[in-house]
């Protein structure tokens, strides 16, 4: 079934099913700081394509993923990179809190569901329209494959 395939993919690679358009975007908009990277699948694909990416996740045990919180990673980045986060956890305000450490003008590429979905917290969504301003992302619908019943999309934001 579709759900069994989805679960098998998640267990091996993570929640985001990246497509070439996403990898191309990240390579061409680097340097990139990936936060909440899990196993680091997307970041590894970006690196394989020659992209400049730092892959981080506080809880990951994957060998290519730096164990550091999103807040610490963004603070140490000092606004140099495009921030990328796919499927931030629903339980926990870490992405919403980390946004506070982005520099004005710094961009965040978010892949996940909306406020009523299964990704990110109310803290994150409360910042959209105030400290995070949505930007146009013309081919964002081509960034990730969606399993049946999943409504994740790519959204680009700029820190006000």
Shape category: globular
User: Considering DSSP H and I runs of 4 or more, what fraction of the residues is helical?
Assistant: 25-40%
**What letter string, H or E per element, gives the SSE order?**
HHEHEHEHEHEE
Query: How confident is the prediction overall: mean pLDDT?
Result: 91
Q: Termini distance? A: 43 Å
Largest sheet strand order: 2-1-3-4-6-5
Number of strands: 6
Q: Give the oligomer, counting copies of the same chain as homo and different chains as hetero.
A: single chain
Low-confidence stretches: none
- Backbone CA Rg: 14 Å
Structural class: alpha/beta
Treating each run of at least 4 consecutive H or I residues as one helix, how many helices? 6
How would you sum up the major sheet?
A: 6 strands, mixed
Approximate strand percentage? 15-25%
Descriptive report:
The chain contains six helices and six strands. The chain is α/β, with parallel strands linked by helices and about 160 residues long. Strands 2-1-3-4-6-5 form a six-stranded mixed sheet, sandwiched between helices. The longest helix is centred in the N-terminal third of the chain and has 11 residues, at about 1-10. It starts with a helix and ends with a strand. The mean pLDDT is about 90.
Provide the descriptors you would attach to this structure in a database record.
single chain, 160 residues, alpha/beta, 29% helix, globular
Short structural summary:
The protein contains 6 helices and 6 strands, in the order H-H-E-H-E-H-E-H-E-H-E-E.
